[in-house]
């Protein structure tokens, strides 16, 4: 969907729900992570790219602390005062939580409320971060409506509020990478997200100029980040750091790993330590010019996530193995795992052929048919689509 189509769809949903015009429409993109997976909560480095697919919110401010939320998933009415951990549950938590967290951070006052209608072009629950796209679209909307800063520092504060909404209200224990790219991404760039010190830096990534594309393979296998397995992996990484006597695994080295006696914590930690090193190597290769040289690092990342971190699944392995067999330079699962999406770095002219190979192998193996998205040079950060009327 183009920006204009997305804005029109969100405005139409708003009019139908509330019988009035919104103050404006704002949007934020989904993402894929090029490399640096399951390291954000270990103070590590990630390199996400924004999708060209965004989530839009049409919003009208209120002055009575009420929220009226509408999406394709339903309707929710309530008050910001009633928002608490797990309350509301389900999709409204991602929106109500943002206003709650912005109020707590002093970014909007206690009277702020809003009518909100959501339309998304980001596949939901596909590991492409529809949750952060939703949060960040609303955060930028509220900031614009109340006059909170939206410069670089302001966006950092908004990203922190969105993480608070997701962790504390939606109760999804995710790191901060998704919100950083949704709010701070730049067209034609990946974003280096340093979860150790919270800084971000754009990294030029002109895929088209190199005759390359990123093929996104949405396996459509079930994907549930809010279940216990993500939290269990996160806990095991934190426990490994504690038993090595470091604040985060960012500070551990290969040599430290032998000090972890049990094989499971050692493999979990080995994934984190080697993955952070693969991100550093990716940055070195991108700086020296030839993007397709990073292919083997992407594939090594997948092997580590599959064998050491154990967060892959047959659908993701099929996507990666089939893409490589069809000539991809590299491929890996992206996002939290256990379903969701994979990416393959492919020559532009091979995109359709690689996709067909993944699809036909999925059929042969009795797996659900995947969906495909093509990624050029990435989208832009959270922004206003339609000026305030
Ligand atoms: P991902 O972020 O990878 O898509 P998550 O499980 O983190 O997967 O987030 C998906 C959840 O976010 C959905 O189940 C829903 O609660 C909420 N969500 C995302 N997009 C929308 C949308 N357009 N409308 C309503 N809720 C949404
Ligand atoms: Mg998410």
From TrEMBL:
Domain Galactokinase N-terminal: 13-60
Lineage: superkingdom: Bacteria
InterPro entries: Galactokinase, Galactokinase_CS, GalKase_N, GHMP_kinase_C_dom, GHMP_kinase_C_sf, GHMP_kinase_N_dom, GHMP_knse_ATP-bd_CS, Mevalonate/galactokinase
Class in the EC hierarchy, top level: transferase
Keyword Kinase: yes
GO molecular function annotation: galactokinase activity
GHMP kinase C-terminal domain: residues covered: 284-356
EC number(s) from the headed UniProt entry: 2.7.1.6
Pfam families per record: GalKase_gal_bdg, GHMP_kinases_C, GHMP_kinases_N
Name of the protein: Galactokinase
């Amino acid at each position: 969907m183009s920006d204009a189509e997305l804005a029109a769809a969100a405005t139409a949903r708003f009019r139908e729900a509330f019988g009035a015009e919104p103050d404006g429409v704002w949007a934020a993109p989904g993402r894929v992570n090029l490399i640096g997976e399951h390291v954000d909560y270990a103070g590590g480095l990630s390199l996400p790219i924004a999708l060209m697919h965004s989530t839009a919110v049409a919003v009208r401010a209120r002055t009575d602390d009420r929220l009226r939320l509408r999406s394709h998933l339903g309707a929710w009415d309530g008050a910001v005062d009633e928002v608490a951990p797990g309350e509301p549950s389900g999709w409204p938590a991602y929106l109500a939580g943002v206003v709650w967290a912005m109020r707590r951070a002093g970014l909007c006052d206690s009277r702020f409320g809003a009518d909100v209608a959501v339309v998304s072009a980001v596949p939901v629950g596909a590991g492409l971060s529809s949750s952060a796209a939703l949060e960040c679209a609303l955060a930028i909307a509220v900031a614009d409506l109340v006059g909170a800063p939206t410069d670089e520092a302001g966006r950092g504060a908004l990203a922190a509020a969105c993480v608070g909404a997701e962790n504390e209200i939606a109760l999804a224990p995710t790191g901060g990478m998704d919100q950083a790219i949704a709010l701070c991404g730049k067209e034609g760039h990946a974003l280096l997200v340093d979860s150790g010190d919270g800084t971000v830096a754009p990294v030029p990534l002109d895929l088209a100029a190199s005759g390359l594309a990123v093929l996104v393979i949405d396996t459509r296998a079930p994907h549930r980040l809010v279940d216990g397995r993500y939290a269990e992996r996160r806990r095991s990484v934190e426990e490994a750091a504690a038993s090595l006597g470091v604040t985060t695994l960012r500070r551990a080295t290969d040599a430290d790993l032998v000090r972890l006696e049990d094989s499971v914590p050692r493999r979990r930690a080995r994934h984190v330590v080697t993955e952070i090193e693969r991100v550093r190597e990716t940055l070195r290769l991108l700086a020296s010019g030839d993007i397709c040289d990073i292919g083997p690092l992407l594939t090594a990342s997948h092997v580590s996530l599959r064998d050491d971190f154990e967060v892959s699944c047959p659908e993701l392995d099929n996507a990666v193995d089939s893409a490589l067999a069809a000539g991809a330079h590299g491929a890996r699962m992206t996002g939290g795992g256990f379903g969701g999406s994979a990416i393959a770095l492919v020559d532009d002219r091979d995109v359709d052929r690689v996709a067909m190979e993944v699809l036909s192998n999925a059929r042969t193996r009795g797996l659900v048919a995947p969906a495909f998205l093509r990624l050029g040079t990435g989208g832009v950060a959270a922004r206003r689509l339609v000026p305030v009327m």
